[in-house]
Amino acid sequence: MPKTVDLTERNRVVSEAAWRVMVRDGLTALSVRNVAAEAGLPPSSLRYTFPTQASVRDSAVALLVERMAERVARHGASGESDESNESNESDEDDTGTARAILLELLPLDEERRVEMEVSLALGAMAATDRALWQAHQRTHLAVREACVRAIELLGADRSDVDGTHALIDGLALHLVRQAPQTGDAWALRSLDAHLHRLLTPAA
Question: Any idea what the CATH number is for the domain that residue 115 is in?
Answer without folding.
Answer: 1.10.357.10
